Amino acid sequence: VLPLTTLSYDSQCGWEGYALTLPVSRRTLALSRYLLALIFTVASVIVNFVLRFFLAQDGSIGATLTVVAAIGGAALVMIAFMLPLMYKFGVEKGRLFLILIVLLAVSLSFLIGDVFQRSNHSFLLQNLQWIAPLGGVVCFIISMMISLRIYARKEF
Fold it and tell me: Which pLDDT band holds residue 138 (cuts at 50, 70, 90)?
């Protein structure tokens, strides 16, 4: 949410137009939001892991790692979908997309959970701590490339 809030404040005060007069490239400006999102995601994953490890009843590192990795991967995927939309449509319209994406993510999580309960997908569940972050990183990198193209063509 913080990278989206910074985008909102930047658009309200006209930061992008001013920043482009400085010796900073459009590429650097676009990637700075991704770096901020990545820093906050990594920090939240670390805090989440520490809290879950010490506050969990069983103290299982494997289960804690799986949950934290899934949450971190989901956070990267959400950021990967949101930032290009914010760059393309602006902050106000982007907030509407944020609501739709969150609703879609929650709906899909219930659907996927239901499918996993009905079938035996033990491979995915056993390797979730590797699959979720890897998928998040892949989506994050693709999103950066898309955002760089959008931001290079955007007029302020």
Answer: very high
